[in-house]
Write a structure and sequence with these properties.
- Belongs to the 1-acyl-sn-glycerol-3-phosphate acyltransferase family.
- One of its GO terms (biological process) is phosphatidylinositol acyl-chain remodeling.
- Pfam families: Acyltransf_C (PF16076).
- This protein is mostly helical.
- The protein folds into two domains: 68 residues, no CATH class; 72 residues, no CATH class.
- Helices cover 59% and strands 10% of the residues.
- It has a two-stranded antiparallel sheet.
- The longest helix has 28 residues.
- It is flat.
């Protein structure tokens, strides 16, 4: 009951399509990225497993057709319905955010290395955190599995318990 909608997102690159991380490392970034987003409220989805599989298959066919017409046509998604465009950000604001991000991450790593080297308390903190993450990965199979188990424990769902008792 924690899912209210499924979002179908199609991504297309009209000019250059990055195939691997190597393209990104060489600076071959996409000049434009187009998104087509469609929201399906959960109450409109089929309930049976077979119908849901068929529904997903139809969405993939639509997505393939959308991409085919994008790359063979005007390199733009056609859409019906309502579109929501976020408010524009100024170029200056974007540049300031980029600069501050680069400055932060450039200083963060050497600072943490220095703290680990100088302070034993920080060293122990990092060692304990690394051990905890490795153990939870080995024991539970990942943090997301542990999180789901905690969610199920804290939000006991009566209909699941009823099915178990039958």
């Amino acid at each position: 009951k924690n899912l209210d909608a499924v979002h179908d997102i199609t991504v297309a690159y009209p000019h250059n399509i990055p195939q691997t991380e190597k393209h990104l490392l060489l600076g071959d970034f996409p000049k434009e990225i187009h998104f087509h987003v469609h929201r399906y409220p959960v109450n409109t989805l089929p309930e049976s497993k077979e119908d849901l599989q068929l529904w997903c298959h139809k969405r993939w066919e639509e997505k393939e057709e959308r991409l085919r017409s994008f790359y063979q046509g005007e390199k733009n998604f056609s859409f019906t319905g309502q579109t929501v465009v976020p408010p524009c950000k100024s170029e200056l604001r974007v540049l300031v955010v980029k600069f501050l991000s680069i400055l932060y991450w450039t200083l963060f790593s050497p600072t943490m290395c220095l703290f680990i080297y100088l302070y034993s308390l920080v060293r122990w903190y990092f060692i304990i955190i690394i051990v905890i993450f490795v153990l939870q990965e080995r024991i539970f199979g990942g943090l997301e599995i542990l999180e789901l188990a905690c969610y199920r424990l804290l939000h006991k769902q009566p209909h699941l318990n009823a099915k178990k008792n039958e």
